[in-house]
Amino acid sequence: MLRTVTSRRAANLLKATLEHAQQSVRQRSRLPINTVILFVPQQEAWVIERFGKFNQILQPGLNFILPIIDGIKYVQSLKEIAIDVPHQAAITLDNVTLTMDAVLYLKVVDPYKASYGVEDPEYAITQLAQTTMRSEIGKIALDTVFRERESLNIAIVDAINHASNAWGIKCMRYEIRDMKLPTKVQEAMQTQVEAERKKRAAILESEGIREAEINVAEGKKKSRILNSEAHRAEQINQAEGEAEAILAKARARAASIELISDALAKENGLNAVSMNIAEQYVKAFSNLAKESNTVVLPVNTNDVSGMVTQALTMYKALSKENSQQLQVKEIKDQNS
């Protein structure tokens, strides 16, 4: 059973190789017969030999050659030719085996060199392209092969043209068509890509969390600053309000004292003061028991007139002392 499967695989591989070789072989023009009068097609060059030696190259159009003496040895097509470069293996700088195929675009620029410089120009240029490609692939790592695909094509074209100049052939373009990696390397690269994407996602998520925390912290900071400024403004306003209230009370007190002094200076002012003191005395006794259960009373509680007289005596003493102080001050002012 194993031999049957192996033989089938070998047969399929051989069949595919033959089909690929048949596709890669270009249909060559058959050598025309010397009919003396020849019509050379456009974009073709016919190489004529006389007695086995190169004689001339016939240009497109009507041409005449001698019979028997002259013979058509080579027919070169001047059109651009596309050659399929078969699958080949190459090893990169980091020891990874690549399998790739490419397309080579050629053009014959010198029919003489293409006829006598090399036996099979297309085969020679194909082998040169394969060896050059292996050499260029060996200079770069696997990670840079896919990025530098265009520069790799240019380098291969320059290397081929440098060697194929003696063959009369110019390489127009070299295009890498397909690249295949080993299965394990592909899996490793896929794992690397997934890991890189996860890394980027984690970095983006962490950056988002950091930005969010920074925004929250800045918001809290600004909120505290605004609250402190508001509290400070509130305290300042409250202090200013209290100061204005104290000033207003002081001004009202001063105005009331001034009014009282004016009233005392008038007739019957002392009688009015005596009546006011008596009213306040009665009112004070009426409020004694409201704030506390323990009340301390003087001995002469019923002697309201005595209390009023005592208050007036104190008032007169204070008024006399204040008058003396004012007189002393006025004298000092006058002396000064």
Automatic annotation (TrEMBL):
It is found in: Mitochondrion. Residues 35-193 form the Band domain. The keyword Mitochondrion applies. One of its GO terms (cellular component) is mitochondrion. Keywords: Mitochondrion. One of its GO terms (biological process) is mitochondrion organization. It comes from the Eukaryota. The keyword Ribosomal protein does not apply. Its main location: mitochondrion. Pfam families: Band_7 (PF01145), Band_7_C (PF16200). Belongs to the band 7/mec-2 family. This is Stomatin-like protein 2, mitochondrial. It comes from Biomphalaria glabrata (Bloodfluke planorb).
